[in-house]
TrEMBL record:
Entry keywords, A to Z: Glycosyltransferase, Transferase
Record protein name field: Protein-arginine rhamnosyltransferase
Presence of keyword Disulfide bond: no
InterPro entries: EarP
Family affiliation: Belongs to the glycosyltransferase 104 family.
Catalytically driven reaction(s): dTDP-beta-L-rhamnose + L-arginyl-[protein] = N(omega)-(alpha-L-rhamnosyl)-L-arginyl-[protein] + dTDP + H(+)
Function description: Protein-arginine rhamnosyltransferase that catalyzes the transfer of a single rhamnose to elongation factor P (EF-P) on 'Lys-32', a modification required for EF-P-dependent rescue of polyproline stalled ribosomes.
Organism: Pseudomonas marincola
């Protein structure tokens, strides 16, 4: 059974991060032949270091990775075609789908959302020109959606890793971090933020030491301004008051998972890191991608309403205020102090949320089941 997944890289690494994980899982756990079509192979090579950023086609971890560019060469469509995040397929490929004598399942894999309307739209068909149906497939946080991307045994791997202090210490040292005994360990991988300096001010003056691990990314310019340091780079280390900052190299997906597992709190961005932070079972900040006319606010609030349902009102208000202030580019000093007041409750809730979401079927499996039912 052959599957084609098309990915147009929009948000640096969120789109390719999701589709690369999905492609690997479909191959490894479901025995499928998967072609991953990517329009920015260089972005793919950042999260898959062994990949060539210039190759037009290559085999990586069982996935056939193809460069998708303007000079499209016609190919025979696969049995299942996934149009990830509403990217526009090549016109000749669409024509081949409509003219094929084989039944081809065409899916539009949508962005992850907790909004109420998602359940009602999941799995609905849309008639395309040529009489072919395209189905909307929505990942989500309820059993009436397509579920979440989660590899088999992921939570067990995380639990084993967290329980093994030596493994955690070795991993941190392998990425250039010397752990500080007793420090609160946190990761920072967000978009640019005007509120960052207010957060760092609080951490600098805190009574407890914080070790902040910052992978290379868009937040480095703001961080450099706060430190009064130009051109921060991987391997740099800076100490101010109770705050120790370590700049990390850009790391591949499995290492990023382990980084999240090591930390007590994770500030993340984009769909891939947002979901992986949830599987880490730790309190988190999601810096949602800003959309026109404030559409991102509804999406963020929908998740917070669901996520905070089992929290006490005060703890829910604390994490909500922190997220809102960060995305509004406002000071997060007071909201962060509120988060610290409810730290134990938020930590226990993050683990419980992770376990609850793991009770639902994972995204790759629901995709395969949808295709089998369609047949």
């Amino acid at each position: 059974m052959k599957w084609d997944i098309f990915c147009s890289v929009v948000d640096n690494f969120g789109d390719i991060g999701v589709t690369w994980r999905l492609a690997r899982q479909l191959v490894a756990e479901h025995g499928l032949h998967v072609r991953l079509w990517v329009d920015d192979v260089a972005a793919f090579a950042r999260i898959c270091p062994q990949a060539s950023p210039d190759a037009s086609e290559q085999l990586q971890l069982g996935v056939e990775v193809r460069h998708w560019h303007s000079q499209w060469q016609p190919v025979e469509p696969a049995n299942v075609v996934i149009e990830a995040f509403a990217c526009e397929l090549p016109a000749t490929y669409v024509r081949a789908i409509t003219e094929s004598k084989r039944r081809i399942l065409w899916l539009n894999l949508e962005y992850l959302s907790a909004e109420d309307w998602v359940s009602g739209c999941h799995g609905l068909p849309s008639l395309q020109s040529g009489g072919v149906q395209k189905y909307f497939f929505f990942p989500g946080f309820t059993e009436s959606t397509g579920g979440l991307l989660r590899e088999a045994g992921l939570l067990t791997q995380r639990q084993d890793f967290v329980a093994n202090e030596q493994a955690r210490q070795q991993f941190l040292r392998s990425i250039g971090v010397e752990p500080i005994a007793g420090a609160r360990l946190m990761s920072l991988f967000t978009y640019e933020s005007a509120g960052l300096s207010s957060w760092l001010d609080v951490l600098e003056q805190d009574s407890q030491c914080t070790q902040l691990l910052v992978p290379e990314g868009r937040i480095l310019a703001d961080l450099g301004r706060w430190l009064a340091v130009d051109d921060l780079k991987a391997g740099d280390s800076h100490r101010r008051g109770a705050l120790q900052i370590n700049i990390l190299p850009f790391i591949e997906q499995r290492q990023y998972d382990q980084l999240l597992w090591c930390c007590d709190f994770n500030a993340v961005r984009g769909e891939d890191s947002f979901l992986r932070a949830q599987w880490a079972g730790r309190p988190l900040l999601w810096h949602i991608y800003q959309q026109e006319e404030g559409a991102h606010w509804e999406k963020m609030q929908a998740f917070l309403s669901l996520y905070c349902r089992d929290l006490s009102p005060l703890a829910g208000a604390a994490i909500t205020s922190f997220w809102q202030a960060w995305s509004a580019q406002e000071s997060v000093a007071e909201p962060w102090q509120a988060v610290l007041l409810y730290w134990d409750e938020l930590s226990a809730h993050a683990e419980k949320w992770c376990e609850q979401q793991a009770e639902y079927q994972d995204l790759a499996t629901t995709l395969v089941q949808f295709q089998q039912n369609w047949l």
